Amino acid sequence: ATYSTCFAQKGLEIGLRVFPQATTLVNDDDFAAGDELNFKVPFKFGGGLTVGYNFTNSVGLYTGVLFSPQGTKYVNGGKTLEWEAKLNYIKIPFVVKANSNPNNGVCFLFNAGIEYGILSSATGDYSYWDGVTSSADKDIKDTFNSSALAAMMGFGAQFKFTDQILGHTMLRFD
Fold it and tell me: Would you tell me how many other CB atoms lie within 10 Å of the CB of residue 32?
């Protein structure tokens, strides 16, 4: 997932996050199926609000509330079935963040922490390519755990355009 976060000054930080992400579900049964289930990665956008405190110009903490649409897509090898799971999570991160010198034109970012996720909805769509059989938005929430605790880590860069305008990007894994 690509994720944006950054800071440049000591003190309180409040932010709005918008991030594109690519997600997939991974489990042993799916991998054991071989060509029966080929992964296709769905791309979606998430976002939310964060609040943090920077102890120095280079180290801080943040938390917040994020909406994160996730899921996976499968196509079987015979191209007779396409299936997609769409999961929506409300996530609450608890993150330590660090960066190199924020006064430089480019500084490097690092985040690590945990994230508590609450599954708000889960639906599944499938279609057989016989032109007849399909199902859309079937509720599959009972198939998944209602909450999850995940470790997360991210690496990125911040670009300083002026003292007030910064651009940043981060590759984030959880």
Answer: 9
For residues 166 and 173, give the distance between their C-alpha atoms in angstroms, rounded to a whole number: 23
**Measured between alpha carbons, how far is 101 from 60 in angstroms, rounded to an integer?**
14
Q: Which residue has the tokens 């984030």?
A: 172
The 10 Å Cβ neighbour count of residue 172 is: 21
CA distance 109 to 101: 10
Dist. CA 43–CA 20, nearest whole Å: 7
**87: buried, middle or exposed (CB in 10 Å: 19+, 13-18, 0-12)?**
buried
pLDDT tens for the chain, 174 residues long, are 434 444 456 888 888 888 898 888 777 776 677 666 777 788 899 999 999 999 998 999 999 999 999 988 877 765 667 788 899 999 999 999 999 988 888 999 999 999 999 999 999 887 776 666 677 888 989 989 999 999 999 999 988 888 767 777 889 888
In the structure encoding, which two tokens stand for residue 62, read together? 């943040």
- Burial (Cβ within 10 Å: 0-12, 13-18, ≥19) of residue 84: middle
In this structure, are residues 136 and 125 in contact, taking their beta carbons and an 8 Å threshold?
A: yes
Q: Are 93 and 113 in contact (CB under 8 A)?
A: yes
pTM for the structure as a whole: 0.79
